Amino acid sequence: METTSEQTREWLKSGDSREYFELVAFPTVGADPSRLRDCVACATWLKKWLKGIGAEAELVLPPQRGVSEEKAAALSVPVVFAELKGTEGAPTLLFYGHYDVQPADPLEQWETPPFEPTPRDGRVYARGAQDDKGQFFAFLCGLREFWREAGAEGRMRPNVKILLEGQEESGSTGLFRLLGEAEFRRRIAADVMLVCDTSAASDLRPAIVAGMRGVCHFTVRLEAASRDLHSGEFGGVAPNAAQGMCELLASLHDARGAIAVAGFRDGAVEPTAEELEAATAGAASAAEIAREIGTDPCGGERGVEPVRRGGFDPTIEVNGVHSGYGGPGSKTVIPCEAVAKLSMRLVPGQNPQRCFELVKEHLRARCPGGMRISFPEDSGLSSALKLPLGSPAMHLAEEVLSEMDVRGPVFRWEGASIPVVAALKETSGAAPILVGWGQSGDRIHSPNESFSVRQFLLAKQWGKTIVPRLA
Predict the structure, then answer these.
(1) ∠ at Cα 62 (57, 65), nearest 5°?
(2) What does pTM read for this prediction?
(3) I need a labelling partner for 39 at 20 to 30 A (CA). Which of 175, 209, 223, 368 fits?
């Protein structure tokens, strides 16, 4: 489905776009305590919107029993839970999305303010324009249209439960705690779970996600002297925390780019020939990836195809390193402290807790002399998700998407993670269907994130089309 200039103009005049702009304007950085008020305001807006389409909606706070005051503040980000009552005896759907977003920095690289949604050339630019506000809200707009039309015509409607959280980008801490509550698990029980927070294939060919890697992100701190020292007076004498951190991080991989942590890959389940064939059929080529990222796709273990490295193999990545002086000119110091942010992506068969302990053990064993290593924070741990290609839910998704697009869908094994989805699958008892409309050019997690009108309309069409087929 191509979107014409006229369709774009009409969409920009619509109620959908007005509400979408309102939603995206909330600076809902769920990991930032200073943005708690914004998260609560956004959750309240969503509750009101859901009530407006006929749902029973409420804000749910995770239990705070036995946590520190600092962690209790993080658990104050509300979860939005809503229910649309369908035809008696109809199946129950659970729809999951998240209203929190990544931090906007570096701010100087944004062409327009990150929380002032700006339409330009058929796209809307803002933090969260795609991930995940654009995707889940477009889906819900499609659900709203179906719900009203089916209600007016007396058609069958499924029961729909809607779960929108505000901490997906930082590990879903609050929602995981809620899933430990028997009453909440009972409330989210469902037959099918729908998630619209993934990517389509190139040129927006539909894609069904059949697997996602698990994730853990954490902080490593290295401390040496009691203060930054003069590099002339103490150079060659005092240990350098920045240099020590570089050595530690370099030790995580061998010369071929393979993970060098002993035992890290133990238990990892290899992809089947059928899975590799299906993944390769819908994958971008190395040349296409290079055009997109601006360099050769040579990260990870050399000699392994990108489709495998990006979806079926585990990773340890350095997300950021901070130490010493980085401003203009020079400041000749020996840094006394270095901090690194790391993330692991895990595959089926790997035990997240064990992998985390192995990485910490590896780094502790290599801590340079005169320095102290610590791990002051982590996001929690989530397992990988693997779905059977031949399930009824997969077949239904394939059928519906083939009606939407004559090319039919491809299957994808996402390298990215939605930490709580595997747990939601287990606790709700629902069969997951993960279909999204993201593209790598949307620049999620980067400055100038955007979502096209075409993508919004496809996600809306998907919501309007799949829900009645599940009634």
Answers:
(1) 150
(2) 0.87
(3) 209
